[in-house]
Amino acid sequence: MKPDFQRDLIPRDDALDLIGALNAMKDKLHNAAQQWELLDENGHVPAAPSYTALLQHAADAQDLSRDALRLTADFARSSHRTTRTGSTVLKDLATAATMSSHSAPHFAETAECALTLTRSTNPTDRHYLTNRMVIDHASARAFLRRTWESLRDAAKELDEHLGFQRFLSTLSRRESPPAPPPPRPGGLHR
Q1: Residues 50, 67, 146, 155, CA torsion sign
Q2: DSSP secondary structure letter of residue 18
Q3: What are the C-alpha distances in Å from 139 to residues 25, 36, 131, 151?
Q4: Residue 68: which of 44, 98, 111 has the closest Cα?
Q5: Nearest in space to 13 (alpha carbons), one of 61, 58, 67, 80
Q6: I need a labelling partner for 156 at 20 to 30 A (CA). Which of 24, 35, 68, 128 fits?
């Protein structure tokens, strides 16, 4: 391998560790986006949505966002960010950090609407609050999905990078000169 290539490679163990962290976070985000539902099985807002459950969605989304921000900050501090693959991974992580930070406020606004809805008697206000809840909750889940997609893209980039490393190592083995033949018994070389 040429020295220029080696400088642009992320060590295999570091890439595998990051892929593991990305996959674990992706699973959490995917599960949250799938499980945190507002609408019932008929597609309607419950008559009395749970403020506590919706507020918990906001708290859990905040934790997920914090994890995405930490992962992004850790990678941004590493020397790997300067490689071609690293800069692409950092871009994906930055998108994930941004998207995840938008989900918690939308979940919190959903919870606030649910609390206000339980106290409202005006049909027009109830209609407005219900619609706002649906929009905020759907937006929050969409931000979680977009975060998941960005982490998926970062993991895919790293996986392709590992494939490139395998290809380069195969090439370097082919280009190595053949080993000299073993010496013959009796000390004579021909």
Answers
A1: negative
A2: H
A3: 20, 12, 12, 18
A4: 98
A5: 80
A6: 35
Tens digits of residue pLDDT in 122-163: 999 999 999 999 999 999 999 999 999 999 999 999 989 888
Count of C-beta atoms within a 10 Å radius of residue 111: 24
Mean pLDDT of 113-121: 92
What is the per-residue DSSP string for 82-136?
GSHHHHHHHHHHHHHHHHHHHHHHHHHHHHHHHHHHHH---HHHHHHHHHHHHHH
In 3D space, the residue among 164, 150, 158, 162 whose CA is nearest the CA of residue 85 turns out to be 158
- Cα–Cα distances (Å) from 48 to 107, 123, 130, in that order, read 16, 14, 10
Residues 6+ apart with CB under 8 A from 135: none
Mean pLDDT of 56-80: 94
- Say which residue the tokens 């986006």 belong to: 33
Backbone angles phi, psi at 76, to 5 degrees: -65, -30
Phi, then psi, of 184 in degrees rounded to 5: -80, 150
Secondary structure letter of residue 47 according to DSSP: S
Residue 39, amino acid: L
**Across residues 161-169, what is the average pLDDT?**
76
- Coil vs helix vs strand at 57: helix
pTM of the entire structure? 0.81
Joined together, the tokens standing for residue 120 give 């409202």
